[in-house]
Each structure stands twice: as C-alpha cells, then as structure tokens.
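Hey, I was hoping to borrow your eyes for a little while. I'm sending you its amino acid sequence along with the backbone structure tokens. Take your time with it, there's no hurry, and the full record follows here.
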Amino acid sequence: SEPEVVYPIHNSIKIGEGKTLIVKCRARGKPNPKIVWSRGGRNLVMKENVNVQQEEHADQESQHLVSTLQISRISIGDSGNYTCKAENNHGSIQKWVYVAVQSVLPTLPFTTTSPAIVDDSACPPLYCLHNGSCSSYPGGIKFC
C-alpha cells in the first residue's frame, strides 16, 4: 500500500538556541516505507550534532517505520522547514515541520549596589544658581 505519514502532527516547533531538538516521523505502508529527512530541499547530512535513528515496527495490518531526527546544540542557523519523506514502491508522501530556533539571552547576575552617600558639605558656597541645593556623590560628582 502507498505510504502514509502519521507523524509529525505539529506544523511548527519553537526551541531555544543550544537545546536538543527531537522530531519523530512515523510512516506506514506495505512494504515498509523508507524515510528520508531534508531541509530546504536538501537531504540532511549526518554530522556530529545531527543524528537520525530508525526503528521498524509491524503489526497484522501494516508495517511502520519511526524515524527520529535529533539535532543537539541547535543554533539559529538551523531554523527552517524540515521534511520527512516516506516512500516505497507504491508511492511517496512527505510532511514538514517548521523549526524556529530562538535566541537565548545570557542571564546577567543579579547584583545590587549600595546606595550612594550624598555629602552636601562638599559643594563650594554659591555652587548652584538661584539658591539651588548642591549634592555631591563619591568621586567628586556634584549636581544641583
């Protein structure tokens, strides 16, 4: 029978940069279909951080194949449409999922600064015009 792709059921996935993406594609048919992953019309090339695993399953009604795409340490450049194409000698079908990799801003340590000490006596007489009050912060910064 012609293959049928059961997964993925979501059309888009949002993931933070540096995380591990796992997308499963499940297809069934007789004979068991072959699954190929692609991005932007090009078949995915296995790299250090890109891995595909496939498991065959069979029951009385049909055979199916589960293909798992895993991209570790995903980066912004990995965003895009990922397609899983299932084919056997009766035909082919494909489904895609859009992966949006979101930038993760570095978390800054929470710090507090001690309040500045205001010293009104450090301003020279008549420093401020129109009888304004003068304040001085450590480091010699004066303001009216």
Notes: The CA atoms of residues 133 and 144 lie 6 Å apart.
